[in-house]
Structure formats: C-alpha cells, structure tokens
Amino acid sequence: MGVSMAAGLAAHSAPEDNPYGPYLTLDRQHWAALAAARPAALDEETLARLRGIGDPTDAAEVREVYLPLTDLLKLYIDRTGALFADSHQFLGLSGRRTPFVIGVAGSVAVGKSTTSRLLAELLRRLPSRPRVDLVTTDGFLFPNARLEELGLLDRKGYPESYDRKRLVKFVMDVKSGVPQVSAPVYSHHSYDIVPGESVTLNRPDILILEGLNVLQPARRRKDGTTGLAVSDFFDFSVFVDAAEGDVRSWYLDRFLHLWHTAFRDPESYFVRFSSMSEAEATKMALDIWDSVNGPNLDLNIRPTRGRATAILRKGPDHQVSWVRIRKV
User: Fold this and answer.
1) What domains are there in the chain, each with its CATH number?
2) Which class for 102: exposed (0-12), middle (13-18), buried (19 or more C-beta within 10 A)?
3) Looking at the predicted structure, is the pLDDT value of residue 124 above 50?
4) Are 313 and 320 in contact (CB under 8 A)?
C-alpha cells in the first residue's frame, strides 16, 4: 500500500492507544490507502439519496473511509460464515446460516444514519450480492402516550424510553434465523410510532441495526442477575464519534434546516414551532441539546463507545479523521 503500519498509527494520548490496549488507531491517510486504487463506488445521485441533512459526505469520503470499512466487514462476514460451516460440520448439524448483524451507534446528529445507509448500499454491491436490511431502533421507542404515562416524554432517546424487551427479542429472532420478523415503524413527521404499521424482514443475509443506544450493556435486575442486551447478538459494531461541540453545532444546523422546511408542513408534529423567529428557534434547539441530547450523549451514549468493533472519529468538517479498530 505504500504506507507502513507504524506510519499509519495516529498519535493520540487516550488510554485506548496504549500499544497493549484493545484498539489500533489508524489515521485517515493510512486508512484511505487501503482502498486508494479503488474507483468511487457511488455516483452523486445515489450519495444525495443516502446523505442526511447537512452531511457533506462525498465520493472521496466513500472511497477513503467506507470502502475500506466495507472490505473489513466482508472479511468478518466471510470468516463468520466459515466458522458457522465448520462448527456445524463438527457437530453433525445442517442448517441455513443465520444473518450477520451489524450495530451502528452514536449521538443524535453525528451522522450515524448516513453511515448506516452507506454501509447498506456498499454491502449490497459486494460480489455475492447479499440481501441487506437496515432497521433503526426508533421504531422500538414507546409510543408518546406511553412515554407521557411514564413521565419520559422529555427523555425520548434515553435507554429507558425504548421497549427494550421487544427490541432484544427482535434482534434475537433475526439472529436465530426466524423466517419472518417484524419491527414497528416510527415517523419523524408525527414524532410517534405509526399505529398498526410494521416492516417485515425475511431472513436477510445482513442486518444493520442503527440507534443511539444499541451498544448499551445488559441491565442488572433487582436480584443482581443480568439478562441479554441487543449488542450480545452483534457480529460487528460501529460507533460514529465526534467532539461534543461539533455535534451540538451540527444539531443546531439540522434543527434550523427543518425549521425552514419540514416544520412548515401543517401535518407535522413540529408545525407549532414554525411561527418562531430564527433567534427563538435557535434558542429552543440549543436548550433541547443542553437539557436532553447532550446529557444523553454524556451519560448513556459515549460510555458505550469502547464496546464497538470500529470507531469512526469525525472532525469539525464532518469528515472522518481517524479510525479505531478493536484488536481483541
């Protein structure tokens, strides 16, 4: 590749970068060199469809960040498949391989949805043409009426605002090969679960599960025991990371974009905010961040970063500056 491993190691002072720690950190130059000779995989029309609001991901970012990540995922998928086949042969069993499950975590507005959609698109284009489904955990939020009963409507997105038992069962059923598994649907337009609507998965080869808290460990029960966590069923996981100040700025930009557009729709849950001045909308967005999204990031989301297989660290320009890969 023309870049030595030593040259590619990013110089950071974090404990995770200890040479005997669990992660190997690669700077953008080293990571990009892994696929430097590859052409851009996605055209501008496709990228425009996959990008989130305000996300500047371009063809170079896809080639230099997401193609190497897709290639690494393919290695994991192939090796996991080989282990499945060998272990079943050893045990004298036969059966269809169960789906490979990828978790994608990170803060509100950090770009994890774009990352998930890009990975889904690139994985579908692998030579084997796997069937890839993408599900977000938004559908497993309790309905607003239930959140109000629980006093959690102002803590939407916190771990306790999700129907965690239903979410764990969904992922467990997918991972164990249940032929058809359904997930509820969430509408950002109505800011609520859509009654009676669901999406059905039919044994995908790969499932990408995207959400704020998908890397949360299992909760401890009152008797001191622990149950299962969603992450127990992951074969690979990605944490999309950035400095909190940058994410707060991106959140504000996204909120103001929606205030200019989607919030004007009379059917939108947020239409009540459309009459605000831009100064009032800005204050509201920052208040929401400082009272809800920021604390959720600090208390619940960022602490799970060290449980990921891969960490993508973004700079202020939304571009990935380094990648951390778990060694163990």
Assistant:
1) 99-326 (3.40.50.300)
2) buried
3) yes
4) yes
Percent of the chain with pLDDT over 90: 70
Average per-residue pLDDT in the chain? 90
Closest among 310, 3, 315, 293 to 156, alpha carbons compared: 293
Q: Is a pLDDT exceeding 50 seen at residue 15? A: no
- 181 Cβ neighbours under 8 A, 6+ residues apart: 170, 173, 174, 200, 201
R_g (Cα) of the chain, nearest Å:
20
Residues facing 239 on adjacent strands: 105, 311
HEC assignment per residue over the chain: CCCCHHHHECCCCCHHHCCCCCEEEEEHHHHHHCCCCCCCCCCHHHHHHHCCCCCCCCHHHHHHHHHHHHHHHHHHHHHHHHHHHHHHHHHCCCCCCCCEEEEEEECCCCCHHHHHHHHHHHHHCCCCCCCEEEEEHHHHECCHHHHHHHCCHHHCCCHHHECHHHHHHHHHHHHCCCCCEEEEEEECCCCEEEEEEEEEECCCCEEEEECCCCCCCCCECCCCCECCCHHHHCCEEEEEEECHHHHHHHHHHHHHHHHHCHHHCCCCHHHHHCCCCHHHHHHHHHHHHHHHHHHHHHHHHHHHHHHCCEEEEECCCCCEEEEEEECC
pLDDT of residue 7: 40
- Inform me whether the pLDDT recorded for 305 exceeds 50: yes
Structure confidence by residue, pLDDT tens digits, 67-86: 999 999 999 999 999 999 99
Task: Tell me how many degrees the CA angle 248-194-272 measures, rounded to the nearest 5.
Answer: 50
Predicted local distance difference test score (pLDDT) of residue 4 = 42
